[in-house]
Structure formats: C-alpha cells, structure tokens
Automatic annotation (TrEMBL):
Example of a GO biological process term: angiogenesis
Alphabetically ordered keywords of this record: Angiogenesis, Cell adhesion, Cytoplasm, Disulfide bond, Repeat, Secreted, Signal, Sushi, Synapse
Signal peptide range in chain numbering: 1-17
InterPro entries: DUF4174, HYR_dom, SRPX-like, Sushi/SCR/CCP_sf, Sushi_SCR_CCP_dom
Record protein name field: Sushi repeat-containing protein SRPX2
Provenance organism: Chiloscyllium punctatum
Amino acid sequence: MRRLFFLLTLSVRAAVAYRYEGSGYSYVESHDVDYSVQYTGSSYYVDYKEPRWCYPLSIENGDTECHSPRGANYRSTLGTRCRILCDRGYRLLGRRHVECTVTRYWSGMSRCKEVRCHSLPAFPYGSFVCSKGTRVDSECEYICEQGYQLEGDRTRVCQENGQWSGSEPICVDYEPPRIKCPGSREKVAEPGQQTTRVYWDSPRIKDVADKHSTKIVLRGPPSGSEFGKGEHIIRYVAYDRERNKASCKFTVTVHVRRCPVLKPPVHGYITCTSAGNNYGATCTYTCEGGYERQGISKRVCLFNRSWSGLAPSCVPIEINVDVNSVAALLDQFYEMQRLLIISSPSASDMYYNLQMNMLQEAACGLELRQTTVIELVGNPPRAVGRIKEQQLSSEIIEQLRQVFYLSSMQFNAVLVDKYGADRERYIQPVASSELFPFIDIYLLQKEEKTILQERENFCN
Ligand SMILES: *[C@@H]1O[C@H](CO)[C@@H](O)[C@H](O)[C@H]1NC(C)=O
C-alpha cells in the first residue's frame, strides 16, 4: 500500500480577513495552524482532532447553534454543523445552516441584517414620536394639534416583519369654531328720514383647528344697509372645514324720534316733509287767500322731540289804502300776494265786463294762488279804483297806471309777482285757463306748488 504524505502550511489569517470582510463573520483570533492530510488512495483522511479546523464562527447580531461530531468543545472542527440564529430585530441573509468543510471554510456565508420599518409619513394636523425610530419594537405615539381629536390607533409598533402594526390614525376637528358678534346697537333715524344706515365690524372667529378655512354666512342685511324703525336681528353662522357650526347674533334697533303732530292754524294749512312729524321733518305754514301769516313760516322737528319756534297764525289781510304813495301800497303786498291789475277806460267796457265775470268765477283759484285783483276804471276826474271793497284815491290810481305802464284808453291788464315785478301783460280779457297755468308754472314757489297740488279740488 502506497501512502502519500502531504505537509501543508497555511496562513489562514490573511485569507479569512480578506474574504469575509463586511460579510457578518468575524474571526475571533488569528490562528496559524499546521495540519496534515493523509491521502488514503480513495479518500482523504482528515484529522478530526484538530479543534480549529475552520475559523471560529461568530455572527454579528446573532448566534450559532453548532454540533460537532467530536462534542461540544470542538465547535469548529471539520464536520461541525451550525444553525445560525439572528437576534430579535435582525433577519437572516444567506444560509440557515453551515458546515465546516474539508477546505477549512464554512460551507456558506450568512449574516443578520437589521430589520427596519419604513419611515412613517408626515401626519396631517398632528405629529408622532417614536421610541426607537424605525427599528423593530419602536413604538410611535400619535398626537393631534389643539382642536383636533385622534381617531384610530394612538400607537403603532414596528413589528419583526418590518411592518407597522395597525393603521395610521387621523386627526378630526370636532371642536366648533368660536364666533363673537359685534354688540347690539340702537340708532335714531337720520334727520328727515325714517331709516338710518348702520355699519358694524365682521364677527371675530376663533377656530383652534382651522385658522383660515372657516366660512362665515350672514343671515340678515349686510353692514351699511338702511334699517327702518324697529328691531332687526343679524345672525352670523361660522362653519369650519368639518362643517362644525357656531352662530351668534346681535340686534340693530332703529328709533324714529317724533314730535307731536302739528295742527294747522285757523284759515291756514301746513305741509310737511317726510313723515310729517319725525325728527328733521319741516312743516310750512300757509294761510288761505285773504289771510296773511303772522309769525314764522317753517318749523322743524328737533332731536328733543319738540318743534322749533312758535306756531304762526293766519289773520285777514288788511290793506291800508290811505297811503301817500303807490310804494307804500305795494309794500303791503310784498312777499305775500301777487297782483292782477286791470285797467279799463270805462265801467261799460265790454272787455272789462267780460274779464270781471271770468275772475268772479275764478275767485277761489285766485285766492289759492295768492293773487289779489286791483281794478282801475275810467279816467280822471271820474276814475275809480278798488281793491275788493276798498276804494283807492285818484292819485294812487294814476300812480299805479304810471308805474305799471297801464293805458287808460283801452282794456289792459298786468300780472305782478310777490316782489313787485310785472310778469305778464294782457290786452284782452284773460281766462283762468290761461292765467292759472302761467302762475303755476312761472310764479309759484316750490312749496306753493305742493300745497296747490294737495288742495286742487278745494275750489270745486
Ligand atoms: C329742544 O331744543 C331746543 C333747541 O335745541 C330748545 O330751545 C328747546 O327748549 C328744547 N325743548 C325741550 C322740550 O327740551
């Protein structure tokens, strides 16, 4: 029998260090060993007594369970079979079992890799804190921002399989917004009106959760509206994103201050602006034709609910015809009466008679238009002049004709306004259907027009 003997010397340290760097193996100590293999012809005879045939197996973050044919103290002898176990939180990469082979290397490579869960996504309206980051057994606790409530799993744990337990919770805004309305207010209607404009600031909103997405709905008229007498309720409703609702209200009360209702004077009447007796209303006193006002013409309803001034009265117009000059006569009509001065050559003049007939029928309309008729008839020395029943002296008759350019030779007439200016002339009798519209359009003051409209049927 031929026997072959080999004698090999290996420096295992360098080879192992290179080959397995970073692989998870680490050898504990260097071991330069000499060993012998005898080739028997059909197989190698290996000396199992060598305790460190392979380098000692050491697993980072794991452990090994080895069984050697030589017993527990020969953990890296040839034929030793090891099961590799990873620590909790680590997962095996490579073979579960390795064996120390005749080549003095373990039969495979394995390592334990740390298991990590994925990073949890950012959490809307809240945050989370994890005990060990994304490592196994890390517990993450979720909390919601103020004003939100957590719904779902409060904690999630990174499991051994690299998955988080449970599912992501959500933060729900349960809290309704807080809304504060402006204060209730009372206002007095503006002067001469029965309404007033009321302004206010928008309500103040506080929603802890939704700072910007709160919607406000107004129930009622907006700020700056005109408000009439009485109490008005303004309501605001606020909704947050989750449709949580809150509302508030306030009132706007408008008072219309009123003066006592004015009574018209005897032989006169009053016309008032706006509602007649509300704060700021103005009432104008007018006397019927043939009467003149004694006292102020207008009274205003004051804020303290009383009328300004004292009530005037209407007294019969008394014209003093015993005056020296036409100026003194006309002064008595100044600002009070219009004049229709009719001049005729004789009492039997056809035009004159026609005119007087027409004016008699229109007497009421003339009074309404505050127009006094003066007749000048005939020539001196038999001239006759009169204002109603009062006779004028021949000097006044003469002067009137001169002042107003009235001819004594034929029928003619002149219309004089309240300020003594002649406004229209007639050389033929003038009918009320012509005279009245002229006065109404050109001579009446604004208030007189109003009064006339109100009392148009007065003469019928
Ligand atoms: C109302 O006010 C006016 C002027 O402001 C005053 O003259 C009058 O006496 C007051 N009337 C009352 C009832 O207070």
